[in-house]
Amino acid sequence: MSKKILPLVLLFSILAFSQSKNPDSILDRVKEEFNKIDDYTVDVKIKVDVDFLKMPDREAKIFFKKPDKIHIESEGFAMLPKEGLNFSPLGLLNSKYSSFYVREDTLTGIETSVIKVIPLEGGADVILSTLWVDTKRDLILKIESSRKPQGTFVIDLDYLKTDKGFWLPSSMIFSFSIDRSILPRQFNFDADSDDKKAREDSTKTRTGKVFLDYSNYKINTGLSDEIFENKSNQK
Amino acid sequence: MILTLVKIELLKIFKKWRTYIGFIAIGVLVPLLHLAMYLEGQHSLDFITRGLRDSFVLVGNLLNGYWISYIILNALTVHIPFLVALVAGDLLAGEATAGTYRVLITRPVSRMQVVIAKYISGIIYTGSLVLWLAIMSLVIGLIVFGTGELIVMSPDAIIIFEKSDILWRFVLAYGFAALSMSVVCSLSIFFSSLVENAIGPIVATMAIIIIFIILSAFDVEILREIRPYLFTNYILQWREFFYNPLNLDKILKATLILGGHILLFFTATAIIFKKKDILS
């Protein structure tokens, strides 16, 4: 009898311990911190390191306005990861979700609380997210998410304190895996052996990283809605 | 002497109505494709990049003259051989049809010189047709759609080329396209040396190309073995200039094979024409 009870006691103890911090209040503070920012513009340098995409490094300007308006301007073609583009936790946390405190962890010397977030709305792309939250500054330092059907992604964030005292990302590394089948195919495959190999490779899952370096933040300048009316560049 | 003969041959080529069919066809077709791209090109691009749009925000204009020229070059290099054969197939057989063979070889020029002049002028016609395609698709495309980055689907990656990294690729790609079309021209002249009516060489050239393309398309082990020996397998290798990094070995091999075919067809034509019993 005692052999059966012991594991249950252990399980309840772990669950009780793991819920020792309130994940909702941690996430609420993160949201609250970000909600202080009404809008901003920032210059961003983009470097793509993806085996299925070869593109030159790019510079772009990102315009953000609450709650989730995004406009990007770039002289040339630029490709930016949708997730984390506005580095806003609001996209993930504004819809209904369930959160669980998991553990404490240290990221690059910073103590963080690890929280799992499960979206409860059926239409959400993300199935499960794990957040590493710096509870001293109320910032998300890392996000690990599983999406359907695109695969998983990890966002690593570094922050800088702006002139107005807000913490905003100074760099972001977006690492992802993606099913090759949802990527565009070549117009016509050549029939030689190399391309046959490429065709076989085309079924594999691909991975990649996008590096974003942010600078020159201009915060709460009262950006006009007209800036965001260009649908093609809007998230 | 050869230069004079080439000038005469070119004069003969460009005096014929059929010579302009190719130029007119490209002159009509390419603007139609431009119009279609102007109206629907963005949809095509959206369709191509739809998978990426699920995960990424794409900013910037990829619908530009370079991309449209690339698409047109993909579509037309398969069909240009017919326009080449239309003229090249007539170069020797046309003399027989017109009854000018004997007049041609009674002049103080050797049969070899006649064949060389025919080949050079045929290749000049082929080159001018490809140049016309370049002017119509690239130059007009850039005027209508402007410049920008070029998106290319290589077999293993999507490549975005910077504006400054594109033009030289097109110059080399059109040059390679001219070389591969010159093989078609040489094949047509070879067939033209065998018969006395131009229809035969034109049909035979197209039949060979169609058969080779079909053989290349079947992904069967036995056909895969013979594929490297079919010149049609190298016709579309101008695309290599739009891959990054360039596979110079592959490009050089394709260039040598196509050049070798031209030499082979020229030699065969020269031998046949030298021994030919001219009766017309």
Throw out a few tags for this protein.
heterodimer; A: 235 residues; alpha+beta; ten-stranded antiparallel β-sheet; 4 helices; 18% helix; globular; B: 280 residues; mainly alpha; two-stranded antiparallel sheet; 72% helix
Provide a descriptive summary of the structure in words:
The complex is a heterodimer of chains A (235) and B (280). Chain A has four helices and twelve strands; from the N terminus they run H-H-E-E-E-E-E-H-E-E-E-E-E-E-H-E. Chain A has helices at residues 2-18, 23-35, 90-93, 193-201; strands spanning 39-50, 53-54, 58-65, 69-74, 78-81, 97-107, 110-119, 126-134, 139-147, 151-161, 167-179, 205-219. Chain A has a ten-stranded antiparallel beta sheet, covered by helices on one side. The two termini of chain B are 24 Å apart. The radius of gyration of chain B is 21 Å and the shape is elongated. With 280 residues, chain B is mainly alpha-helical. In chain B, a hairpin with a 4-residue loop joins strand 2 and strand 3 (158-161). Chain A binds chain B through residues 51-56, 60, 70, 72-83, 85, 150, 153, 176, 178, 181-196, 198-199, 201-202, 232-233, 235, and chain B through 48-52, 54-62, 71, 74, 148-149, 151, 153-160, 162-163, 216-217, 219, 224, 227-228, 233, 236-237, 239, 244, 250.
- Given as residue ranges, the uncertain stretches of chain A (5+ residues, pLDDT < 50) are 187-193
Largest sheet of chain B: 2 strands, antiparallel
Please indicate the percent range of residues of chain A in DSSP E strands (runs of 2 or more): over 45%
Q: Uncertain regions of chain B: pLDDT < 50 for 5+ in a row?
A: none
Structural class label of chain A: alpha+beta
Average of per-residue pLDDT values of chain B: 89
- Counting copies of identical and different chains, the oligomeric state is heterodimer
Radius of gyration of chain A: 21 Å
A few lines on this structure:
Chain A has 235 residues and is α+β, with helices and mostly antiparallel strands.
